[in-house]
Amino acid sequence: MSEATATKRPPQPDWSAITHEELVAYREAENHWRASGAARAILGDPDPGAATAWQQVALPGRELPVRVYRPEPGPGDTGSGLPLVLHVHGGGFVGTAVQCDWANSHLAARLPAVVVSVEHRLLDQETPLSAAADDGWDVLHHVVRHAAQWGIDPARTAVFGESCGALISALAAIRARGAGLRLRAQVLVNPVADVTETMLDHASVTRHASTPTLAVPQLRLVQRLAVPPGTDPRALSPLYADDLNGLAPALVVVPTHDPVADHGRRYAAALQAAGTPARLTEYPEAPHAFLTLPGVAPQAEAARTEILDFLRDRLTT
To answer: What is the CATH topology of the domain spanning 38-315?
Structure first.
């Protein structure tokens, strides 16, 4: 039996009525599929110029897996002092760093850089968004503090995230400024930037409410799980951050056929208004999560090239 036959993608559940047990079972099955060879036709093959391995990072009160991509050494390479790209995958309540191998291995090989992708805690009825946000920041802080062990140059560091991972990356960029960590760049792809009561009030949510890769019922579930009662949703919504001045220059990548397209547009505008350099690039007719779908979204190739060029300009000088 082939892996494609043995590993079938699970059907999507009823997002409006899903229980905790059903959510956990679904994401385990879905992430198993995303990490399988059967998914490569959609998610893309990794770049042969990068080596990929899982590592455990010891953080306060917990250990967290990260997926690490390093360029294959050439003659005379020492493998030290490389730029760091801290990556956070999307999905919110589902997702794994493996789904981003196509883009991350390419960045590692072509920049070159060490790319560390955070296997953050996923949203459910017991795990709020603040836990994932802490995971993103804590891994970034850990790797920079132990730069020599990781073979990276802490003065050449960027964050890069997709969807809910872009929200976590944007929050990490804000925390980095407060901690005195000078990031060189932030790349935010189809970012979710608002988990407040206005999350679904953007025009793009109405216009693209039922796209195959993201629909309003999934957004409602993210909103419901992200911010438990008694928690301030503005503190987890980069769009409503008190001060966006002095952050790392941003590339905001927005697919136009995406319910959260206006999240990205508005966040790019807010960064610009605050004085932070921000470039907004829109990819016509591309769906949400298109960067992880090179097998079905032809725009992914151009976006990956743009991200590589943007990071190269800011990390290699």
So the answer is: Rossmann fold (3.40.50)
- Residue 206 neighbours by CB under 8 Å, 6+ apart: none
The amino acid sitting at 225 is L
The C-alpha atoms of residue 268 and residue 252 are separated, in whole angstroms, by: 6
What residue spans define the domains of the chain?
A: 38-315
- pTM more than 0.90: yes
Contact 160/85 with Cβ under 8 angstroms? yes
CA-wise closest residue to 125 among 28, 23, 214, 32: 23
CA distance linking residue 239 with residue 198, whole number of Å: 11
Q: What radius of gyration do the chain's Cα atoms show?
A: 18
Contact yes or no for 239/267 (Cβ under 8 A): yes
Cα separation values, 75 from 78, 80, 148, 234, 241, Å: 9, 14, 21, 50, 46
Task: Express each pLDDT in 117-172 by its tens digit.
Answer: 999 999 999 999 999 999 999 999 999 999 999 999 999 999 999 999 999 999 99
